[in-house]
Amino acid sequence: MDRICIEKELRENAYPGRGIILGKSADGKSAVAAYFIMGRSQNSRNRIFVEDGEGIRTQAFDESKLEDPSLIIYAPVRVLGNKTIVTNGDQTDTIYDLMNQQFTFEQALRTREFEPDAPNYTPRISGIIKLADGSMNYALSILKSANGNPESCQRYTFSYNAPLAGDGHFIHTYQCDGSPLPSFEGEPKLVSIPNCIDEFTDTLWNALNEENKVSLFVRYIDIATGEAKTKIVNKNK
Description:
This protein is mostly beta strands and 237 residues long. It has one domain: Inosine monophosphate cyclohydrolase-like (Glutamine Phosphoribosylpyrophosphate, subunit 1, domain 1, 4-Layer Sandwich), CATH 3.60.20.20. It contains five helices and 13 strands. Strands 11-10-1-2-12-13 form a six-stranded antiparallel β-sheet, covered by helices on one side. A five-stranded antiparallel β-sheet has the order 5-6-7-8-9. A hairpin with a 2-residue loop joins strand 5 (77-80) and strand 6 (83-87). The protein starts with 5 loop residues before the first helix and ends with a strand.
């Protein structure tokens, strides 16, 4: 698979929707997770990320302007022991709860489908990082309609065992802007992960479309110790 430049990829796509990047830093010392949200409507743009324990949640920036919270207010990131879960919806809680009952990542997601937001049927994208014995692995998932037909849910899981230093993978909800919005297609895209959380955060945030970007979360987790560093950037301040 050809490696893409994540900065160029984001600059050239005004609306990838919501995106997850998981990978390993170039020096091999950190497991890395990034998640961003974008919005076209006032309701979607009226959000911020806030820390919630070891994870984060979305919150209305202006409560008086909050309309339908059902698909925009959720916990994108939760931590279960040595596992960090990142998703674009309330399936974070499904994964957390069922994995806590010894279900696998894939088994938990078999209980869910794409979002019921016709005509887009937004895919549910999910990721998980697992640390163990000084090593890491990660997986990404997408649940999507059959080319816009809600009669069929298509489920894809991509697992990355013993990832190489500097490698990451990027998955997002939409191919690009449109009406209806076209779902992501193909495998997650291979990207490079730098050593510095500040550098990576700035690269992603500055490359996202200025009008549509809403919030960004980036976390670097020391693979040896589990110690985490987190950066959150909100457009609304």
